[in-house]
Structure formats: C-alpha cells, structure tokens
Amino acid sequence: MGIRLGNIFILLALFGTFIVSGSCALEPKIDKRLSKTLERVGYANILVSMKDGTRDILNELAGKSFSSRTERSQALYNALTARATHSQSHTLNWLEEPAILKSFNYGKFYSLWITNQIAIEFASRELIETLALMNEISRIQEDEIEELVHPVDSHSTNAESIQVVNQWGVTEIRAPQVWASDTRGAGITIASIDTGVRPTHVILSANYVNDTHSWYDPYDESEVAHDRNGHGTHTVGTVLGRNGFGVAPEAKWIACKGLSDTGSGTTTNLIRCGQFLVCPTTFNGTDPDCSKTPHVVCNSWGGASGRTVYDEMIEAWHVAGIIPVVSAGNSGPRCSSVGTPGDRDVISVGSTTSDNTRSSFSSVGPTSFNTMKPDVSAPGSTIMSADHRFDNTYSIKSGTSMAAPHVVGAVALLLSKNPDLTYVQIKHLLQSYADRDLDPEGYNCDFISDNAFPNHHLGYGRINIGRSMAALN
Ligand SMILES: *[C@@H]1O[C@H](CO)[C@@H](O)[C@H](O)[C@H]1NC(C)=O
Ligand SMILES: *[C@@H]1O[C@H](CO)[C@@H](O)[C@H](O)[C@H]1NC(C)=O
C-alpha cells in the first residue's frame, strides 16, 4: 500500500488535479457501476472476466483460412472452450466447494467460453472482493439488462385473410427485383436473438430449420420454440416471411430466446445466445454442432450507448462468419443516441418511413467511439408482419427493430447469390448502392448535415438490394 500511495503522490505532483478516490487495490478490477450497486444493495449479478481473455485466439483465427465454414466454427469453438477451461477451472472449482458456497452464499454460476467469463448470480460484496484478489481474474462487472428496441407503435390488424401483396418495405428496398432473378435466400440460415418465434405461423413454418439444434432458450431451456411477446416473431417475418412479408423468403431460420417474455434480457443470457450461434446445441445446451452455424444474426435489442461488453462476442461472430446486424435504437433525433451494441463493429441500422424520410425515433450518431452510425437505413415505420398470437394473424409495428430485419434479409439474399462474400464486402455493397433520395430534415450532428451522405442520421442511405445485387453480377 505504501508503494501504491507513493505512486499516487507522484501522480498528484505531476498532474495536480488527480483525484484519489477509494484508493483500494481492488478498485481497478471492480467496475465503477458494480461498486455503486454494491453500495446500494450489497449484492449483484456479475460477469467475471479472466485475465487470459480471448483476444489472441480471435486474432490468430481471423487471419487463418479454412476449407469450410464448419471447420472455421469448430476451430473457434475448440480454441475458446479450451481457453475457458484452462483459465476458469481454478475459480470454478473454488465456486463449487460447499464450504465456499456456505460462507459467501451466491446463486447459479455459468462458464461462458465465447467471452472467457464466469457469470455469477446474487454475488455478495464479500465474494466479489475475494474474487478480485485472484490473480487469474482481470475485471468484474455487473450483468446488465438490455431491452428489445421497443416498438414505437404496435397494433394488431386481426387480419386472417390478408391479401397476398408485397409489403411496402420489401418493395422499397427492391427485393422483388432480386427474386425475379431466382435469388430468394436459398441455402442461407438466419438467426434471431429476440423474444423467440412462433414457429407455426403460416409465413414462417416452412422456413424453420426445426431440427434438434434450431432453438435455445437460456432462461428456461424450454424444448419447443415459442414467443409470448411478439417482437421476435414480427422481426423474423420481415426477414423471410412468405407471401410478400419477408425479404428473403427461401432463407431458413433458427432462434435463441435472448430476451424474456417481457422483452428484457440479461447480458449473460444474450452471451449464451451468442455461443449457441457459433455452434448450435440442443435445447438443453448439449451436443454443440458446428456444422449448423448461421450466416447472419438479427439483433433488434440494445441498451445504453458507449459500452464494450459485447465486443468479444461480436468479434467471435466475425471469426465464425456470422454477420451481425443491429438496430440503431429508437432514441432519435438527438445526436449520439445510437445504443450498444449498435454502436460497435456491426451493421447498424436506422429507420425510414414510406414517405422517404428518417423515422423520427431513429437513433443518430456519432457514437462515443467517434464513429458514424447507423451504417445504413431501411424501412422501419408501419411494418406489417407475423403476429405471435395465432398462426394466421398479423400486426403493424414501428421501430429500428423493424428496420434491421430488412437488412438481415438483404444480407441473406447477397449470401445466397455468393456465399463467399465477407462482412466487409457485404457492408460495402449495402452502403455503396444505398438510395439517397430521402428528404432531409435539416438536422446536423457533429457538423455533418443530414443532406450530405454519409451522415449520422441515415448512414449511407436506405439500402437498395436490387442495386447491390446488380453490382455482384
Ligand atoms: C417441427 O418438427 C416437429 C417434430 O417433427 C413437428 O411435430 C412440428 O410440427 C414441426 N414444427 C413446425 C413448425 O413445422
Ligand atoms: C439433454 O436432453 C437430452 C435429450 O432429452 C437428454 O438425454 C440429456 O440427458 C439432457 N442433458 C442434460 C445435461 O440435461
């Protein structure tokens, strides 16, 4: 302690304004927000990061070539699970000891391999402070709660005999033009991380992979796919629903229930969904099969901006060849309102209306990492899609949650045409051929006007999959 204080005094002398707060050796490992929660309630659900991390593995595998997607996800899975076992076994064994459980009294705990973390429920301050003393642990943070990007409006059409027409968003991004050349998403699997999906809905049932590895529910490990909220069913309908509802009507889907029935999800369960995507498992998390890795994932959820908590998961998806598409958020038109993970290394999607403007709610950049987001925009206002209550009813919702699925469908179409396209190539194809004939609102963020493209309001513009696809030929 004497030496530490000595250092602080030197810093004080150098910088004058340096503030010494709780100069305890444990502080740097325990996240500030977590410390505040502990002060308030004395315990928290936590994520414990191991010092070894995953960075070197991700860097090494990202630069390697593999003969197939399966080989790549398998290599990633093998390396990350071996790393997690190696760096976590001491802590996990310790947590399993009855005497330790008795003296610290905590809830369930999970080993997370994709991020090399241990999640612990109801961890007391004493437990957290003891963990912080362990050499192999680098950081302890609070398990946060994310929300589905709440639809701004939502109503049921109650329509059982909807006319089979192409929905306006599907038409607006020129999907029918792509279908006309026989590209409809065949061969591509999309994943949904949301409130679940009603698998029997008439526009979705034929596209459900529906094998033993196409559904995971980290909350209840339920056996059968379901959706008691409606958000997930609606979004998947826009990605690939039949009868003109979806962008890629021949793509297949799998789903992970990262958000509970109320629409909120814990970081831990969202990360468990992230693991499921790399090598899908059975309903109870067993028998991972790396030949079933999906190609693209729809994330219509998020939370406060400026966080890095999903970075390791997102980077693992990139290495596995899973394209992450994320809603920008519904906190616009205020500048710097794009939520996490929409402000990270993903295709971040803003929302447009059928009147060719930005949807008023659509979140706006720049991010606190000084990047321009959203990357692109897509239709998100007044979108009709599958309803979760019956197999043949529909509902209308508005939000960037509805915009991201249009982009997921567009990615599926591109990959269906050319499965070798990379994340960078796909993002480039979507951005370079986006439509910019959108009415500006006269807003500025970070000295960039919304009538100059790219901008912080609409990114590179509203995607036009017809033009992106034509550029591929
Ligand atoms: C999925 O497969 C199961 C078992 O074969 C079947 O009973 C069920 O109806 C299928 N679900 C859908 C949505 O097709
Ligand atoms: C998972 O489910 C399978 C199939 O029902 C069962 O055989 C197996 O014992 C379960 N495993 C665990 C760890 O619950």
From TrEMBL:
<dbReference type="Pfam" id="PF00082">
    <property type="entry name" value="Peptidase_S8"/>
</dbReference>
<feature type="active site" description="Charge relay system">
    <location>
        <position position="231"/>
    </location>
</feature>
<dbReference type="InterPro" id="IPR015500">
    <property type="entry name" value="Peptidase_S8_subtilisin-rel"/>
</dbReference>
<keyword id="KW-0645">Protease</keyword>
<comment type="similarity">
    <text>Belongs to the peptidase S8 family.</text>
</comment>
<keyword id="KW-0720">Serine protease</keyword>
<keyword id="KW-0378">Hydrolase</keyword>
<feature type="signal peptide">
    <location>
        <begin position="1"/>
        <end position="25"/>
    </location>
</feature>
<dbReference type="GO" id="GO:0006508">
    <property type="term" value="P:proteolysis"/>
</dbReference>
<protein>
    <submittedName>
        <fullName>Bacillopeptidase F</fullName>
    </submittedName>
</protein>
<dbReference type="GO" id="GO:0004252">
    <property type="term" value="F:serine-type endopeptidase activity"/>
</dbReference>
<feature type="active site" description="Charge relay system">
    <location>
        <position position="194"/>
    </location>
</feature>
<feature type="active site" description="Charge relay system">
    <location>
        <position position="401"/>
    </location>
</feature>
<keyword id="KW-0732">Signal</keyword>
<dbReference type="InterPro" id="IPR050131">
    <property type="entry name" value="Peptidase_S8_subtilisin-like"/>
</dbReference>
<dbReference type="InterPro" id="IPR036852">
    <property type="entry name" value="Peptidase_S8/S53_dom_sf"/>
</dbReference>
<dbReference type="InterPro" id="IPR023828">
    <property type="entry name" value="Peptidase_S8_Ser-AS"/>
</dbReference>
<feature type="domain" description="Peptidase S8/S53">
    <location>
        <begin position="185"/>
        <end position="442"/>
    </location>
</feature>
<dbReference type="InterPro" id="IPR000209">
    <property type="entry name" value="Peptidase_S8/S53_dom"/>
</dbReference>
